[in-house]
Design goal:
By secondary structure, the protein is mostly helical. It is built from eleven helices and three strands.
Length: about 325
């Protein structure tokens, strides 16, 4: 605790960001803000539709509401501070603010990764064991799955936040990123960080490869079940229910593995910043679009709300 108080008395850090104030970068910043706005509205709308429409009170949509909540918190943790720094030109973040940003970011990314993995299990049960689905995916089981995703993600975030903020930082305060990310922050530490690098890699392997292996195993079983279906229509419907989840998984895990599972010698700050924009801003915008535009039940719920709004006017 004393180390935290001592460190928090310093000036904090400087986030170098990803945009300069050139005309081209100003346009790119505007694009990011549009994407952020769409992500914000899309996830809020999806959570609202799932809450108010009884037809969407199923395990799949419950998990989807949790995914949207995670995406909503993720973009709100990163983008507003980035926007304030860009518009004000200050680029600073306090020591405590940096620690909180790390904690929230790692917790949310870890929770989302685990939830995506467990959502694959939900699809497997729905397709391979449809008659037992209400029992195997009961309300209690769904709550346990969601709670475990949040719990492991928060635990991972707490471990990394406390470890990163317990290090001694001296000399340069310039973080070569647009938010406080642990690998970028470790480069500024005075002490030997090899032990923490190993801890960080182990956490990333557990939080990414474990759920990814669940996804691969679930979809292997799903593929086997689809191949044994005698009806082409049933096979098509089964694959359609998985396509949205597979798209979300590809976007999230592709970017996250590129960032965290590469050897440090192959890492370049410019590449990391671009890919980070992808899964901290772009993916949270795409997820609600993927799950709504390609889903008749969600679009039906949206039309129902719009019809009520028109009648009210």
């Amino acid at each position: 605790m004393w180390m935290w108080l001592n460190q928090s008395s310093i000036d904090g850090f400087i986030l170098l960001g990803i945009f300069s104030h050139s005309p081209a970068d100003s346009v790119l910043f505007s694009v990011v803000m549009v994407v952020f706005t769409v992500a914000l509205c899309g996830n809020v709308l999806l959570i609202f539709l799932i809450c108010i429409d009884p037809r969407l009170h199923t395990p799949m949509y419950f998990f989807l509401s949790q995914l949207s909540l995670m995406d909503l918190m993720l973009v709100c943790n990163i983008v507003p501070k980035m926007a304030v720094n860009f518009l004000s030109g200050r680029k600073s973040i306090s020591f405590v603010g940096c620690g909180l940003q790390i904690g929230f970011f790692v917790s949310l990314v870890g929770s989302e990764g685990l939830l995506l993995g467990l959502m694959a299990y939900d699809r497997y049960v729905a397709i391979s064991h449809p008659l037992h689905y209400p029992i195997l995916m009961s309300k209690r089981v769904c709550l346990q799955i969601a709670a475990s995703s949040w719990a492991f993600g928060i635990l991972d975030g707490m471990i990394q936040m406390v470890a990163a903020m317990s290090l001694c930082y001296c000399g340069s305060r310039n973080v070569d990123h647009f938010f406080c990310e642990v690998p970028a922050l470790l480069k500024l530490a005075c002490a030997d960080t090899s032990l923490f690098d190993t801890l960080l890699f182990a956490c990333c392997v557990f939080m990414l490869l474990l759920p990814f292996s669940i996804i691969m195993a679930s979809y292997a079983r799903i593929l086997g079940a689809v191949l044994h279906m005698h009806s082409a229509q049933a096979s098509k419907k089964a694959l359609a229910t998985c396509s949205s989840h597979l798209t979300a998984v590809s976007l999230f895990y592709g970017a996250a593995m590129f960032i965290y599972l590469r050897p440090s010698r192959y890492r370049a700050p410019s590449h990391d910043k671009v890919v980070s924009i992808f899964y901290t801003v772009l993916t949270p915008m795409l997820n609600p679009l993927i799950y709504s535009l390609r889903n008749q039940e969600v679009m039906g719920a949206l039309r129902k709300v719009l019809d009520h709004f028109r009648i009210g006017i």
